[in-house]
Design brief:
This protein has helices at 26-37, 49-58, 74-81, 106-134, 156-176, 197-200, 203-212, 221-232, and strands spanning 17-20, 41-46, 64-68, 88-91, 138-143, 181-188, 243-246. By secondary structure, the protein is α/β, with parallel strands linked by helices. It has a seven-stranded parallel beta sheet, sandwiched between helices. Belongs to the short-chain dehydrogenases/reductases (SDR) family.
Length: 253
């Protein structure tokens, strides 16, 4: 009888280099910590240096390198181009400005398309080139949303951008599979983060959200980070082009 491999060893990221955007707070911060705790050397990208310093202090010693910069800027892409290699990318940038469909100004439309779609595309391009330089394949995890699979009032632009991200994920997965580069998305429901705090502070909106989630509550960043770790790890070696729903059952209805 064959012996099953150690299931926990399959989650080890020892010797791997990971890049996490939007790592200063929320899901990105939790993901950076999880990857570092699994043994990866993590490049954490955020605009605020104090956030990065706190993250590095909480992570295992020497595991987090902070890049204090704007991940939408050309200089960020140039810095990735200078890397000798890369194993994991967690694309965690995203903004949301909920408005009724007919009241969305073109400035809001352009801003959300730029951050949620254009920047994700461009960062993925240069990160994949870095993975090729490293010669070990890689894993790209797009932090998408349940809104990439359903529609919702006042979120036409957000839903549009996340549906685009899901399409990008699938197309990248098919094209890059022969090179051993896996591409997947994680699709959370409403999670308690600084981004969602103003929305969830509205009692009626929070009740609406919880009524749509069969598990009856919003999520925590600590419930999304393990999904990201799984998809980044060898435990997910046969998974690509998939969307992992972390949505409490919202999209199952």
């Amino acid at each position: 009888m064959s012996v099953l491999p150690d299931p926990f060893a399959a989650f080890s990221l020892e010797g791997r280099v990971a890049l996490v955007t939007g790592a200063g707070k929320g899901i990105g911060r939790a993901a950076a910590l999880a990857l570092a705790q699994a043994g990866a050397q993590v490049i954490a990208v955020a605009r605020t240096g104090t956030d990065l310093a706190e993250l590095a202090a909480e992570a295992p010693a020497g595991r987090v390198e902070g890049w204090e910069m704007d991940a939408t800027a050309p200089a960020f892409l140039d810095r990735i181009r200078a890397l000798p290699g890369l194993d994991i990318l967690v694309n965690n940038l995203g903004i949301n400005r909920p408005l009724p469909f007919t009241e969305v100004p073109v400035e809001t439309l352009d801003a959300m398309l730029s951050v949620n779609v254009r920047t994700t595309f461009l960062v993925s391009q240069v990160a994949v080139d870095a993975m090729r330089r490293g010669g070990r394949g890689g894993a790209v995890i797009q932090v998408s949303s349940q809104m990439g699979h359903v529609g919702s009032p006042r979120r036409t632009v957000y839903c549009m951008t996340k549906h685009a991200l899901e399409g990008l994920t699938k197309a990248m997965a098919v094209e890059l599979a022969p090179e051993g580069i896996r591409v997947n998305s994680v699709c959370p429901t409403f999670i308690e983060t600084p981004l969602t705090a103003p929305m969830l502070a509205d009692h009626s909106f929070r009740e609406f959200v919880q009524s749509r989630i069969p598990l009856g509550r919003v999520g925590r960043v600590g419930e999304v980070a393990p999904a990201i770790l799984f998809l980044a790890s060898p435990a997910a070696s046969l998974i690509t082009g998939a969307a992992l729903m972390v949505d409490g059952g919202w999209t199952a209805q």
